[in-house]
Amino acid sequence: DLPTIFAITPTYYRPVQKAELTRLSHVVMLVPNVHWIIVEDADHTSSLVTNLLQRAGLVERSTQLSAKTPTQFKLQGKDPNWSKPRGVEQRNAALRWIRENTSKDDRGVVYFMDDDNAYSVELFEEMNKIQAERVGVWPVGLVGGLMVEKPILNNENIVTGFNAAWRPERPFPLDMAGFAISLDLLHKRPEAVFSFEVERGYQESEILRHVTVLKELQPLANLCKEVLVWHTRTEKPKLTEEEKLRKAGKSSFD
Ligand code: UDP
Ligand code: MN
């Protein structure tokens, strides 16, 4: 039987939010063993997310949480997007929920599913293969300045490193979308969480260093030859006309 895949999605209010979450909901709908944990970067959960989950028929296999990023860590208008860590508070809230609501004997997998990436249904079939006490890894498209950032295997199919070009000295130079963790490891290592205090690009290494070592990584997606997830990013829409309507009090959107 299949593990429950706990897919953790940090998300925040902005014009494209509903479009992003709608796209993600359709993948979740196609993979019955996913439990989707949506964590809003806000003081309260929103009716936008509640309604979306209802319309997708996902109420029974989802959890809606909120966890606001502390003000000193929140990106401000003109900050470049990489200047502060994103999703830290939200992912940690979801990890707390998972640790409180599952037991170490449950078969499960935990995946960090950001709201703007593009996911293949096949990726989740790969996650089903993750063994007890292991972390599955696979290639990610369009990230780190490369077409594909991926684990490197030796002739015994053991992971010996990564092809990363950006900060390759990181202990685990891979993207958040490129791994999933067996649930038992999170119960065994309660100290495995994300942190605001780490350097840019080190969030993945921060959690992984607590739960695994390089040679224990389980290569998936046809021995890391297939790309089943892409680190796409959504352009911020130009809403200049909407802005004019708003100033004239004629927009129905706040
Ligand atoms: N995010 C958030 N609050 C923010 C910025 C981002 O909850 O203030 C979420 C976002 O919705 C996404 C994740 O954190 O699911 C990673 O953010 P983003 O995709 O902007 O980061 P990048 O992929 O550029 O590293
Ligand atoms: Mn992103």
Automatic annotation (TrEMBL):
The active site is at E204 (proton donor/acceptor). It comes from Hermetia illucens (Black soldier fly). Its EC number is 2.4.1.135. Keywords: Glycoprotein, Golgi apparatus, Manganese, Membrane, Metal-binding, Signal-anchor, Transferase, Transmembrane, Transmembrane helix. Mn(2+) binds at D116. Pathway: Protein modification; protein glycosylation. This is Galactosylgalactosylxylosylprotein 3-beta-glucuronosyltransferase. The keyword Iron does not apply. GO terms for molecular function: galactosylgalactosylxylosylprotein 3-beta-glucuronosyltransferase activity; metal ion binding. GO terms for biological process: carbohydrate metabolic process; chondroitin sulfate proteoglycan biosynthetic process. It is an enzyme of class 2 (transferase). It is a single-pass type II membrane protein. The record marks E149 as: Interaction with galactose moiety of substrate glycoprotein.
